[in-house]
Amino acid sequence: MSLPFTSYEEGTPLPPAFYDMTALEAAPRLIGHTLVRRTEDGDIRCRIVETESYGGVEDKGSHAYGGRRTARTEIMFGRGGAAYIYLIYGMYHCLNVVTGAMNDPQAVLIRAVEPLTSADEVLMRKYRNAAAKRPVDLSGGPGKLCRGLRIDKSLNGQSLLEQGGPLWIEAGRPLQNAAIMQSPRINIAYAEEYAAKPWRFFLRNNPYVPLLDKNMDVFKEF
Predict the structure, then answer these.
(1) Alpha carbon separation from 68 to 54, 152, 176 (Å, rounded)
(2) Rounded distance, CA 120 to CA 201, Å?
(3) CA neighbor of 9 nearest in space, from 170, 150, 117, 169
(4) Ranges of H-type helices in the chain
(5) Could you give the domains of the chain?
(6) 92 DSSP β-pair partners
(7) Which residues, given as ranges, of the chain have pLDDT below 70?
(8) Model-level pTM?
(9) Taking Cα atoms as reference points, which of 77, 70, 88, 96 lies closest to residue 156?
(10) Residue 201: per-residue pLDDT
(11) Angle at CA of residue 154, ends 142 and 111, nearest 5°
């Protein structure tokens, strides 16, 4: 059975209704869709192959845990369909997709992408400006993919709904549930009991996905 919410016309922008879902609903359903970055050198299209859900004020892994509303997290409290981008370790940007309703902070971290064509890969390697011998070295991690796609905080708050802007998401091909795996999220021990939640989702056997977890399982509907 194909995942719900993936039966859109391939190559068209995901509709606003897609982003009305919670992060936990949207995270596995973003797998297989296409992230597009427009640059002066041309468009780069990448398949989303790994995500993590950070949703709601109760999630201790979320920047908005407990209703924390700051200049940085304000974008999470808006309606879904925008990019939330922040800097970690003072050097790596992370791209998140805001989902959910107004005043309900929900975001999906994009952890890994796969370039759709060799031309897309060439541009990503140019922008990465670093040796990437394996696919996972190119865009298998949130910081790597942001460098490869030239994504930084200048795109924070950017709408993802419309083709032709600097960043948007198009529908990919529907996937089967068995193609998507889930496991605990990466490097969030601070989230206490929420650290073990299986809220990381990734495409099975994809070479761009890093850090496979022994506790992984086939995705099941929540």
Answers:
(1) 13, 23, 36
(2) 23
(3) 170
(4) 23-30, 118-128, 135-139, 142-148
(5) 16-205 (3.10.300.10)
(6) 88
(7) 1-6, 212, 222
(8) 0.94
(9) 96
(10) 96
(11) 10
